[in-house]
Fold this sequence. Notes:
This protein has about 280 residues and is α+β, with helices and mostly antiparallel strands. The chain has two domains: about 5-180, Beta Barrel (Cathepsin D, subunit A, domain 1); about 200-275, Pdz3 Domain (Roll). About 20% of the residues lie in helices and about 35% in strands. It has seven helices and 19 strands. It has helices spanning about 5-10, 75-80, 125-135, 140-145, 170-180, 220-225, 245-255, and strands spanning about 25, 35-40, 40, 50-55, 55-65, 70-75, 90-95, 100-110, 110-120, 140, 150-155, 160-165, 165-170, 200, 210-215, 235, 240, 260-265, 270-275. Strands 4-5-10-6-9-8 form a six-stranded mixed barrel. Strands 14, 15, 16, 17, 18 and 19 form a six-stranded antiparallel β-sheet that branches. A hairpin with a 2-residue loop joins strand 18 (about 260-265) and strand 19 (about 270-275). The termini are far apart. The relative contact order is 0.16.
Amino acid sequence: xxxxVSMLYLMTWTPAPLALPAALARAHHLTSDEAIVVPFxxxxxxxxxxxxxxxxxxxxxxxxxxxxxxxxxxxxxxxxAKITFTKNQGRANPMMMAGSYTVDELQMGExxxxxxxxxxxxxxxxxxxxxxxxxxxxxxxxxxxxxFRTTIDYQAKTMTMIPVVYEPGNVLQDMTRMLMAPKNQxxxxxxxxxxxxxxxxxxxxxxxxxxxxxxxxxxxxPAATAGLKKGDRLLTxxxxxxxxxxxxxxxxxxxxxxxxxxxxxRRNGEDLKLTLTPREGL
Length: 282
């Protein structure tokens, strides 16, 4: 199934290969643990279309695009939903020269996200598709669906969405920052954590729950000082999902010695925020 965002790029700019760093994500607790089932339709263009509400207005028909790093809404939606510009958002985005805004609430069925960054413009590609498949008022991308664990049933044409402990950063701002950075800027790669953390993690085969188990915490270590305990379920480290040992090591490798970072752990059914500062050592 073709990602619409690739067509948008072809009509606007030709970027170098871009990788979104894990540090763009920040931990956030979404309260509902119940599965949300949302219907969708498959357009003649083979895209998935869903109905959304924006700031209580709608419904609006948009493309659900798992390849899009942003959410794009038309000027019609912006006008009806009264999406207004606020300072510090950056009115123009050099990728598409579109306005960058934040909507108070965006809903897809019972799935809801508040204070979500969006782009507002009538993109020619979206307009062209709408001529053949009927009204399309934008596309729903990463800032929305990243907050859910989603299972797609193409036969039933439904999505089952479960809120997860994850909140993406402002991808638009971070992509813009990377694009505007000097091309000859030296990239420093970290091959290891470079410091002492003082805990170990493991995940049993077949464990499908979010996070990874803390199986050991060394006495007098930064982890022990932070209040981490054996048996905790580590959900995020410095804003990065920790679904495996590899995820945990990768997140740790991005942290400098002496830099305090936030960890989210689940203990006795309660999500806790801990602050850990790695120090020199092995």
